[in-house]
Structure formats: C-alpha cells, structure tokens
UniProtKB/TrEMBL annotation:
This is Transporter. The chain crosses the membrane at residues 20-39, 45-66, 78-97, 103-124, 136-157, 163-178, 199-217, 229-247, 254-271, 308-327, 333-350. Keywords: Membrane, Transmembrane, Transmembrane helix. InterPro entries: MFS_trans_sf. It comes from Ferroplasma acidarmanus Fer1.
Length: 369
C-alpha cells in the first residue's frame, strides 16, 4: 500500500470523487465473493466436488498476496485510475468465467481476479485516506459487506452462477470514468519487502470471522439469501458504528465487547443455524474489521508494513473454506471463531500491556474530522 496522507502530500481531498473508493472496494468484493453463493450450483452443474469448489472460492486470496509485489509499479498510472482499471479487468474476467467449464480454467480466472482485487482495494483504501473523511474511510472498509450484499442479490435474481458471472460485465465501463480522477502519488517508490508478524497476526485473527463466512451460503442453502441481505446491510453500519464507539468508550472496551459477541453468536449460530444469531455474527464479525487498522496503527510498527502484512494474511482466506469443510463443518467453524477471538484478545492485552492503551493516539487519529 502507498501510505498516502492528505496532510503530507500536495493533493487536496476535493480532487477525488469520494464515491470512487466505496464503489471500487464494493464492486471488487462482489467479484471476489459472489462465488460463495455459487458452490452448490457449481457442484450440481459442473459436477465438481465440494473440495474443488471451495478451492476455487479461496484461490483469489492467494492471488491477492501478489499485490505487495506489483502495486508500486502499476500505481504509476494513477491511484484512482488503477482502482477503476482493476474493476474493468475483473468485469471482463467474470464475463469469460461464465463460459468456462473446467477446473483449470476457473482456477486461473479466480487467481487473476484475486490479483486485481488486491490492487482495487489497496487503491480504494489509499484514496479514502486522502479524502480525510472518517465516514468515507468507514464506508470504504464497509465495501466488503456491500460486495457480499451485491453477490446475494445478483444470485437471488439471476439464479445461476453462469448468469451472475456474465452479468458482471456491466461494470466494465468503470475505466472510462478515470480521467477526471487521475492523480499520480508522489509517494510511489520501488518495492521492498515490508512485513510485520504482529500486524500479520492482527489481521489473520481479526479477519477469521469474515473467512468463516465464506462457507455460510453453502451451509445455509436457500435461506442464506435472506440472512445475507439482512446481515450485510447491518454490517455496513457496523463499520461506521464500532470506530465511533472507540471515542466514547475506548478501543479496548469496543474490541473486547465486539469479540465476545462474535464468539458467542458464532457458536450459537453454527450449533442451531438460527438466523438471528447468524445476523449478529455477520454484522459484528465484519464490523471488527474496521478496528484492525486502528489497532495496527497504534502499535510501534512502521506504517509501511501494515499494507503488505494485511495482504499476506489473506492466505487464510484460501485455507479456511477448504479446511473447515473437512469433517464437521459447523463444529470446525465454531472452534475457529472462538479460538481466533480468544487469541486476538490475548494478543491485544499483551501488546498494549507493554505499550499502553494507545488512547491518546486514537483520539488524535479521530480528531482530524
């Protein structure tokens, strides 16, 4: 990631269309995660095994790990233009996928989509940071929930994975809107390996609920559409609510209470398939994601290491949907959510026990707007 900030570069936040980062993150997530609703259809129409289908679901997260190696080079075309170019590319690949029938073809297409997803979302986060608008930043991260919501609605309306994939071509003209927003970052530099094991663990543990959610549509079956539409709609607001609660209460209280809700609701949901607990688990499980950048920025970690470490943690997005379906899917999912929540709580307690609560820097972070 480029680590731009409106206060240290000569770019005005007004130069950017503030809808662009939200649009880019949301549509990129749609192309990444619409496949979660395809699993049963893929198994029935292409006669793939469930393991093969979940490999196709998760392989883009391996492609996403390529992002840190190429971002600094392709970003020279302009950060907003890069986001829209990635969306156009994903739309074309999605269209082609609608006519593919072999595992190798779909594997290659999904891997490439993962690369463009990493580019689009990294650029979207960068642009949202430049605007300096806390709501825009929150809604940009909320694009993960919006993208899931789009996937559920598209599949509910069109009814087949082929039609949803082909319909993705409607986003192909995105690149045509890039001229007005083409700003080349003066902060671009040659790639060098920036990595922090601490940030890696924060995002690995914090994103576990989101990765577990990859298996929920196939787990719930037809009822997943109702759950997804309700839960992901609420999750969009959770992305705005949880960071705001930090100011009123504290990062520790907000994080601890959220993770407790995630762990309890996740366990009950996977034990009972109750939609109410599914909604709670989804909304707070995704909402916690909005706290992870704040936690990372309040550790004694070089800011340049946050983006690459986050992208490398995406390997779990490939591992989870494959491993969780081996054996008892519900039990495996509940254990994964509980263990991740406990370890993130322990990690936070140990890390901020050494460095303090970070409350001053957090208030400073949110006092800009």
């Amino acid at each position: 990631m480029l680590n731009l900030h409106i206060n240290n570069i000569g770019i005005s936040g007004k130069e950017f269309n503030k809808i662009l980062p939200i649009f880019s993150y949301s549509v990129a997530t749609f192309f990444l995660m619409d496949f979660a609703f395809f699993i049963n259809d893929i198994v029935n129409t292409l006669h793939f095994t469930y393991i093969e289908s979940f490999i196709l679901l998760g392989i883009p997260f391996i492609g996403r790990m390529v992002t840190p190696f190429v971002y600094s080079y392709v970003g020279k075309i302009g950060v907003p233009r890069l986001a829209l170019l990635a969306i156009t590319s994903m739309a074309i690949i999605s269209f082609i996928m609608g006519y593919e029938t072999t595992f190798i073809e779909l594997f290659a297409s999904r891997f490439i989509i993962g690369i463009f997803f990493g580019l689009a979302t990294s650029a979207a986060i960068e642009v949202s940071s430049i605007t300096g608008d806390r709501k825009i930043i929150g809604l940009t991260m909320g694009g993960w929930a919006i993208g899931w919501l789009m996937g559920a609605i598209f599949f509910m309306i069109l009814g087949s994975w082929e039609l949803v994939s082909i319909a993705g071509i409607v986003f192909a003209p995105a690149l045509l809107f890039s001229r007005k927003h083409n700003v080349i970052s003066p902060m671009l530099k040659k790639f060098h390996f920036d990595f922090s094991i601490k940030v890696f663990l924060v995002f690995l543990l914090g994103f576990t609920p989101a990765y577990v959610l990859e298996v929920v549509p196939s787990y719930l079956g037809p009822s997943s559409f109702t759950e997804s539409i309700i839960a992901y709609s609420i999750a969009v607001f959770a992305y705005l609510l949880l960071p705001a609660l930090i100011i009123r209460f504290s990062l520790k209280k907000t994080l601890f209470s959220s993770l407790i809700i995630v762990a309890i609701s996740g366990i009950i949901f996977f034990a009972t398939t109750n939609i109410v607990f599914a909604v709670l688990f989804t909304a707070f499980g995704l909402g916690v994601n909005s706290l992870l950048p704040i936690i990372s920025r309040n550790m004694d970690i070089d800011a340049n290491k946050i983006g690459p470490s986050m992208n490398f943690s995406a390997v779990a997005g490939f591992i989870f949907p494959v491993v969780l379906t081996i054996g008892n899917e519900a039990l495996n999912s509940a254990i994964a959510v509980f263990v991740a929540a406990i370890f993130l709580l322990l990690f936070y307690s140990i890390e901020f026990g050494k460095h303090g609560s970070g409350s001053k820097s957090i208030k400073k972070l949110f006092s800009i707007h």
